[in-house]
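Study both lines:
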Amino acid sequence: MTEHDELHRLRAELDVLDGTLLDTLRRRLDCGVRIARAKSRHDVPMMQPGRIGLVKERAARYAAEHGLDQAFLANLYDAIIAEMCRVEDAEMSRQLPAAEGRR
């Protein structure tokens, strides 16, 4: 196998992993929309600091157990959580008129 062949194979593998990562992020955001709808139905506030702490702790444990940089995963999860909060907030704002109509 030539250097070019090996790099091509490895990059193809990386492309598949990137696709999986992006699909997983999309599914996570879709789940956030469903969570926002449930929160709206049950009058639960969007911000749940205890849940955020749990998610961050789990990411830190995962990093430690798998030899990953904890700061990297903390930064990654900060970005993911910020986007989840934005998505949930937007969805809950859309749900608000419907919820008020049920009262």
Q: What stands out?
A: The mean pLDDT is 92. The radius of gyration is 19 Å.
